[in-house]
Design brief:
The chain is an all-alpha fold and 166 residues long. It folds into two domains: 1-74; 76-146. It contains five helices and no strands. α1 (3-28) runs antiparallel to α2 and α3 runs antiparallel to α4 (119-141). The longest helix has 32 residues, at 37-68.
Length: 166
């Protein structure tokens, strides 16, 4: 990362912090119908909610900017180790996670409260994550062209000790 890119990122962070501070202050000082404790608490809840919403939006926007200008590479998001093609287990985990997150978000928006998550949904998400973990374990335990994984580890340890001079 170049020095210019770091300066741009610092500018984005400072701009986001200033926007959030302004939003929080404006929302906090919204007029209320009195000096009741409930009205003040509701104003504070609204201010915090909108500030968090703005923060999530700005983080998402910053990620989109990084993707657009090429500083964030997503080409390896679904690929196998070594670039052998797309990983079906990664794709499945990504899709399940996005579908469940979007569904919960829509339920929260429509009901104004966090819904109870059915155990079946958690089971499906756990199965998907377990499938990814097992496929990752199989990939890492597969023998390489230089022998078994333990032989490869021994060779790596010898190379590391030779470099350190011991």
């Amino acid at each position: 990362m170049t020095e210019e890119q770091k300066k741009v990122e610092v500018r984005y962070v400072v701009m986001a912090a200033l926007i959030l501070a302004v939003i929080g202050i404006v929302l906090y000082f919204l007029p209320s119908d009195g000096v009741h404790a409930d009205a003040m608490l509701n104003r504070l809840k609204i201010a915090i909610g909108f500030t968090v919403l703005a923060l999530v939006f700005l983080f998402g926007f910053a990620i989109l900017i990084c993707i657009a200008n090429g500083s964030m590479d997503l080409s390896d998001l679904l690929s196998e180790v070594g670039g052998k093609g797309a990983s079906m287990s990664r794709f499945q985990l990504l899709i399940f996670t996005l579908v469940i997150a979007l569904s919960l978000f829509l339920l929260v928006v429509s009901q104004n409260r966090f819904p109870t998550v059915p155990p079946e949904v958690l089971t499906l998400l756990g199965i998907s994550a377990s499938t990814y973990a097992v496929s990752k374990g199989i990939q890492l335990s597969a023998p390489t062209s230089s022998g078994t994984p333990s032989d490869q580890a021994k060779g790596d340890a010898k190379a590391a000790s030779a470099q350190s001079g011991t």
